[in-house]
Design brief:
The protein is α/β, with parallel strands linked by helices and about 240 residues long. The protein is built from 6 helices and 7 strands.
């Protein structure tokens, strides 16, 4: 019998809640970035995790209702690690744990960089209704069949030199043929770390998450052109 290559890996502290109401109506899971290849265990003090603190605060403050769990997903390892897709596996495990905790609540995945790849990877989980990817690492040919029935949105900085806005746009175009709705907006002058024009990053992220959680009650903050077949608009 082949050996499971995950058995020797450290077990993840999967769900780290920031806001956990006594009764849950929905959930947001926040996925931080990482590295292409690394077997180093994650730490809550690493820059990729700390970078999501202001995003978490903005999302929590803008929740359309207060019975929404907001939690981080902490991976076992810092790397994606090729076909192992460690961060993707950990995200699926976190969703299973959320199901065990709260039952089948609609869930939005919010991921930055490698976290955006993990969110896309896990989009087919029965809990997931929407994905918002910030400056995602979506290599050419990334699978998208799992996005069927989901709402997928990407925001990418025009000055990103770490991950590719063009690759993100290409992936969104493929997702548009599968997802119930998919779109993208470009943050003019924005960088990968979301430091340049950070207020726009945080405000737009919080508003999109609120819309994904309550699409009938909260209007979409993005222009309709984000979901069209022409050039994606610059904010």
């Amino acid at each position: 019998m082949p050996q499971d290559d995950t058995q020797s890996l450290p077990q993840p502290a999967v769900l780290l809640p920031r806001w956990c109401p006594p009764r849950l109506r929905a959930a947001v899971l926040v996925l931080h970035g990482g590295q292409e290849t690394s077997d180093t265990p994650t730490s809550p003090r690493q820059l990729a995790a700390l970078r999501m603190d202001p995003v978490l605060r903005a999302v929590t403050a803008a929740l359309p209702h207060k019975d929404v769990l907001v939690a981080r997903v902490r991976y076992r390892l810092r790397g994606w690690n090729g076909t192992r897709a460690d961060a993707g596996r950990d995200t699926l495990r976190a969703l299973d744990d959320l199901t065990a905790l709260a039952g089948p609540v609609p869930t939005v995945l919010l991921g930055h960089s490698m976290g955006g790849r993990a969110a896309l990877h896990a989009a087919g989980h029965p809990q997931v209704t929407g994905v918002l990817a910030l400056a995602p690492w979506w290599p050419p040919g990334e699978p998208v069949a799992q996005t069927a029935g989901r709402h997928i949105v990407a925001l990418h900085g025009a000055r990103d030199r770490v991950t590719s806005p063009a690759a993100t746009a290409g992936c969104v175009r493929r997702v548009q043929g599968t997802a119930v709705r998919a779109g993208m907006a470009v943050i003019g002058g924005g960088d990968h770390a979301m430091l340049r024009r950070h207020r726009l990053w945080h405000r737009t992220t919080a508003a999109v998450v609120a819309h994904l959680l309550a699409p009938d009650a909260v209007p979409d903050p993005l222009p309709e052109e984000c979901y069209g077949t022409g050039a994606f608009p610059v904010l």
